[in-house]
Design goal:
It is a single chain. This protein is α/β, with parallel strands linked by helices. It folds into 2 domains: about 130 residues, Beta Barrel (Lyase, Ornithine Decarboxylase, Chain A, domain 1), CATH 2.40.37.20; about 220 residues, TIM Barrel. Strands 2-9-8-7-6-5-4-3 form an 8-stranded parallel β-sheet. A 6-stranded antiparallel beta barrel has the order 10-11-14-13-12-15. Strand 3, helix 4 and strand 4 form a beta-alpha-beta unit. Helix 5 crosses helix 6. It is globular and about 70 Å long. The structure holds pyridoxal-5'-phosphate.
Length: about 375
């Protein structure tokens, strides 16, 4: 683990294990509440196990090999990655069983994936066109290795995947023709469903996508190409997917951390919240504005602000909300009954959107109760390539 000199993580390392270290962190620092995180990991694993559906969590939310290992230890069937750079960084960090969940268009990246596969990476890829099947097959065979292949289906997201069953059959046939590819299944990610807040409305949108998917699966079966794995879904739909039994596995990402964008989503239809806010960004009050507000040292370079504003916690109590105040600063709007926090106070803020927030940090500061207990490297930080 290489710590950048003068970075918050290097300055915080001596605090590991010290009582009260959590409230003395140098900031801005991405903080992982270990107890909430472990409950989130266990809860999803238990829900899927009970429903008889597998889970292949998406690493786009955490980009961290240690978290991928813990998800595998909780029973995951593999780990999804959004980009080749993310997948390769996690492999180098010690994770394996990695599936690239989006089609790509680069011979150099396909070659890099095949080289990693030849070095022991077990890699799954998705295909949505015949020339991509040929490109993966050629690279795998040149490096003496194999890729597991999923045919990508579009059930309403309009981002990738084929929307016709005939095209899906043609792709699956092309995959089975290649000795260096193994046809393992299909992917149908229903992204538009995930953040629908009401449970009944989300169930109805998920059912609609599942009807399209079932029709395509029927044609694949009739052609003798029934997929072994039907992958899709996410944090918002995993319970519904377990009930519907159309997907055989789900790809939840945000559940490990949660964020303000997911907070209003009634995930289990029980009024929520089923998953706790494990990811926070710790910031320090560095001054007071002339209008009397506490100003913190974290703005849009420490939080991705594409979601509802962060809640601010001090010692477990909700003390305010952040109002953005530029790239490097935030302003705390206090909750009723709370005044302006003193300069030097370290507070923890929830995040508007976890995936792009994690991409801004090198390390997770893992905390439990009052202590900093570990630093986990975010190996794929910045790997949007
Ligand atoms: C292909 C794919 N699968 C799964 C997910 C995970 O979604 P969530 O964070 O809502 O669980 C995403 C998120 O964008 C995705 O693109």
């Amino acid at each position: 683990m290489s710590l950048k000199p003068f970075g918050a993580a290097a300055l915080n390392q001596p605090l590991i294990g010290q009582p009260g270290g959590r409230s003395r962190l140098e900031t801005p620092a991405a903080v992982l509440d270990l107890d909430i995180f472990e409950r989130n990991i266990a809860r999803l694993a238990q829900t899927c196990k009970r429903a008889g559906i597998a889970f292949r969590p998406h690493a786009k939310s955490h980009k961290c090999a240690e978290i991928a290992r813990r998800q595998m230890a909780a029973g995951a069937s593999g780990i999804c990655c959004a980009k080749p750079g993310e997948l390769l960084a996690l492999f180098e960090g010690g994770a394996n069983d990695l599936m690239l969940s989006a089609p790509i268009a680069s011979a150099a990246k396909i070659d890099a994936l095949a080289r990693a596969a030849a070095r022991g990476a077990r890699i799954g890829v998705v295909v949505d066109r015949l020339n991509l099947v040929a490109a993966y097959a050629e690279a795998a065979s040149r490096h003496g290795t194999r890729f597991d292949v999923f045919v990508d289906l579009d059930t309403g997201l309009r981002r990738s995947g084929v929307a016709s069953a005939q095209e899906a059959v043609a792709l699956a046939c092309a995959v089975t023709d290649q000795a260096s590819l193994r046809y393992v299944g299909v992917q149908a990610y229903q992204g538009r469903v995930q953040h629908i807040e009401g449970f009944a409305a989300r169930r109805s949108a998920n059912n609609k996508a599942n009807r399209l998917l079932t029709a395509m699966l029927d044609v694949l079966k009739q052609a003798g190409l029934a997929p072994g794995i039907v992958s899709g879904g996410g944090t918002g739909s995993h319970l519904l997917d377990g009930q519907a039994q159309v997907l055989t596995e789900v790809q939840p990402g945000s559940y490990v951390f949660m964020d303000e964008a997911y907070n209003p989503v009634d995930i289990y239809g029980a009024g929520g919240p089923e998953f706790g806010p494990a990811l926070r960004v710790a910031v320090t009050v560095v001054g007071h504005s002339s209008a009397g507000f506490a100003i913190t040292d974290g703005g849009s370079k420490s939080f991705a602000p594409d979601g509802p504003p962060p809640r601010v916690f001090l010692g477990g109590a909700l003390v305010g909300r952040i109002e953005w105040c530029g790239d490097e600063f935030g302003r705390i709007l206090p909750e009723p009954g709370y005044g302006t926090l003193p300069i030097g106070t370290v507070v923890e803020c929830t995040v508007p959107h976890c995936d792009p927030t994690i991409n801004l940090h090198d390390f997770l500061h893992v905390v439990s109760e009052g202590r900093l207990v570990a630093l986990w490297s975010i190996e794929a930080r910045g790997r949007a390539d």
